[in-house]
Amino acid sequence: MRSRASVQRLVRALAWGVFACALLAYGSALAGDYVFDDQHSIRGNDALHDLSNLGRYWVDPSAFSSAGRMYRPALLTTFACNWAICPAAWSLKAGNVLLHAAVAVTMFLWLWRLSRRAVVSACVAAGFAVHPLASEAINLVSARSELLVTLGLLLALHAQLSWQRRGGSVGLLFAMVLATVLACGSKETGVMVPVLCAVQAVVLRHGAFDRRACGRALWAIAPMVLVVIAYLVVRKLLLGDATVQLLGRTGEDPTSGHGRTLLMHWATMASLLPQVLLQALAPLRLSMDPAVQYRDSFADPMVLAGAAMLLGLTLWAWRRGPTARLRRLGVAFAWCVALPWIVIPLNMPLAEHRLYGPLVGFAAIVVAAMPRTRRWQQGTARVVLRGLTAALLVTGIALSTQRSLLYRDESELWRVELVHNTTSFRSWWGLGTSMLRMGDVQGSLGPLAQAHTLNTRHFDTLRNYTEALLSLPDEAAQPERALQVAAELNDLAKFDPWARTLHANAHLQAGRVSGLREHFAAAERLALSCLQIATAKGYVYRLAAQARRGLGDLPGALAHLDTSIASGLAPVGVRLDRAALLRELGRHREAKRELLLAQRDAPTDAQVMRALMQSASPPR
Q1: What does DSSP assign to residue 153?
Q2: By Cβ atoms counted within 10 A, which residue in 56, 364, 419, 608 is the most buried?
Q3: Residue 68: helix, strand or coil by DSSP?
Q4: What is the CA radius of gyration of the chain?
Q5: Which of the listed residues 355, 374, 403 is the one where a domain comes to its end?
Q6: Into how many domains does the chain fold?
Q7: Domain residues for 45?
Q8: Confidence class for position 483, pLDDT limits 50, 70, 90
């Protein structure tokens, strides 16, 4: 019989072993770069680059990303602090790796407290720590939400377990509240915290609940429920919806969440989820864009088979027996974490990073399933088990390392995806946008065109394709193609001001290449029409001025810029354009004054410095 002190030493040693496994498996993630959603949510999100915005994250959903609004303040807080330490990709990826290691260790301690099987719990937690299925959640910096919400759930379960076993205290209540804030503030799945804690309280009860036991359980869960209610109220005030609207979905475009009916989504998920279970056991054919075959009927044999398999496995895991408590908690954890994206149609029905949380539930079921008989703990069986465990861990480390190294080059990452699935429009889109960011505009056109062919209704693909065509220099421009694609984009999003400005730019490009006046007139009309559908921007007046200049009307172009400045819209670009026009009109003194105003507003701006040097050069 081990002493209490020796057990504590063993648990500490095993916890450090789990931590080390996580670092060994995913240390190579530090060699990766920002990829995919990281570009707009981290690198391109100015709100994260200044710690003075910490308070803003809790009241302004627009701080989430330059590409959209979401309310995840705890997540943004960690990003901002991480960026302040070092903005390089390796720094934020190191943060993800450490969080993953913390999740693995916290899971081990939770499993050990529930099962009292330290070595078995440590082996399973180490398997989780090296599992390749976790690679997307760790290597995508923007997927940190999965790590944080899972950590919040586990910390809340720890605190609630201590409350139930050792009696209540203010400190434990405070810990549960903080864990709930962390979970809800990281991802919407965090609202499941009180549900999971309630399940844990019910599953771990001894006999029927008496009044005192019920009261103590309610006291522990009530503060978490209040945090969740407060979170939903804040979401309602800031975003207009406490959760997500499920009704009114058109069914026109299955590849987008709002374009997929609930029937189609649920039928599709029933056929996809068995694949998740298989990948948890054998993580093969991992993909940033898993192949999805959309199904629209529960009479479909694959849907029926998938639903029957899920129901059967759930009932099997929920059956009675000596390990029923841990099995049931594992089932509850997996379902609660996965249920939001199973029920709600999202743009990607299945994504690897969403499987991170359910893996914790699977791990609990595996611990419960491990045999307890002594013959497995001695002799040849013990040696075989140790060898098999070591082999699985080494294999997991090798596969996870290999997977992480793909994130060093986003273009290469998408090329690997295309080897497995040439019909993945997201892979073609990702390849095209990554090449565009690297400055290979000509090379990006082929992949973006292919992505658009595969999914003609995807707004972001069409937008990036238009932007690539407009980035070509005039001597290599394809104005007819650019006009066609920009018109498609404008038709797809009739009231999107950015789509209209791109359409205006396409006409400007066509006007410069062809010299036809009607293109400049169309560009001016499209640019000014943005004032009717969105808040006025200096950029709109700049486009209108460029169109008027193309028509040979320099005073008219200057009038547009003057209107912008008179409206309080005087960004550096407007002032630089105005200075250039004044020089063309021979009003050099006014042009100089305009450049000095631009320098005052942006003293280190490269464009301003270049314009000042040009103005100082003697005329040729």
Answers
A1: H
A2: 364
A3: strand
A4: 29
A5: 403
A6: 2
A7: 4-403
A8: very high
d(CA 195, CA 451): 41
**422 belongs to a structural domain:** no
65: three-class secondary structure by DSSP: strand
CB atoms within 10 A of CB 403: 25
Q: In terms of Cα–Cα distance, which of 38, 96, 88, 92 is closest to 67?
A: 38
Say whether 425 sits in a helix, a strand or coil: helix
Flag whether 78 is in a domain: yes
With tokens 């379960």, the residue in question is 157
End-to-end CA distance of the chain: 95
For residue 361, the tally of other CB atoms under 10 A from its CB is: 23
Does 239 reside within a domain? yes
Q: What is the pLDDT of residues 73-112, one digit of tens each?
A: 999 999 999 999 999 999 999 999 999 999 999 999 999 9
Please identify, among 358, 379, 403, the residue that sits at the C-terminal boundary of a domain. Answer: 403
Count of residues for the chain? 620
Q: Tens digits of per-residue pLDDT, 406-449?
A: 999 899 899 998 988 898 899 999 999 999 998 999 999 999 99
Give the whole-angstrom CA distance, residue 259 versus residue 366.
38
Instruction: Compute CA distances 191 → 227, 296, 330, 396, 460, whole Å.
Output: 9, 29, 18, 32, 30
What pLDDT was estimated at residue 379?
Answer: 65
- Cα–Cα distance measured from residue 482 to residue 449, given in angstroms and rounded to the nearest whole number: 11
The C-alpha atoms of residue 271 and residue 260 are separated, in whole angstroms, by 16
Q: CA-to-CA distance for 467 and 471, rounded, in angstroms?
A: 6
Which residue type occupies 579?
Answer: A
- Residue 161 CA to residue 344 CA, distance in Å, equals 30
pLDDT tens digits for 294-344?
Answer: 888 888 899 999 999 999 999 998 888 888 899 999 999 999 999 988 888
Give, to the nearest 10 degrees, the angle between helix 572-584 and helix 588-601: 170
Given a contact cutoff of 8 angstroms between Cβ atoms, the answer to whether 508 and 472 are in contact is no
The label of the residue with tokens 């028509």 reads 551
Rounded CA-CA distance 133/85 in Å is 29
Q: Using one digit for the tens of pLDDT, what is the confidence trace for 589-610?
A: 888 888 888 888 888 878 878 8
Cα–Cα dist 221/156, whole Å: 10
User: How far apart are the C-alpha atoms of 107 and 417, rounded to whole Å?
Assistant: 31
Name the residue type at position 149.
Answer: V
Q: Identify the pLDDT of residue 620.
A: 46
The residues with which 68 forms a beta bridge, in sequence order, are 65
The encoded tokens of residue 595 equal: 């450049």
In terms of DSSP H, where are the helices of 438-550?
A: 441-454, 459-471, 479-492, 497-514, 517-529, 538-550
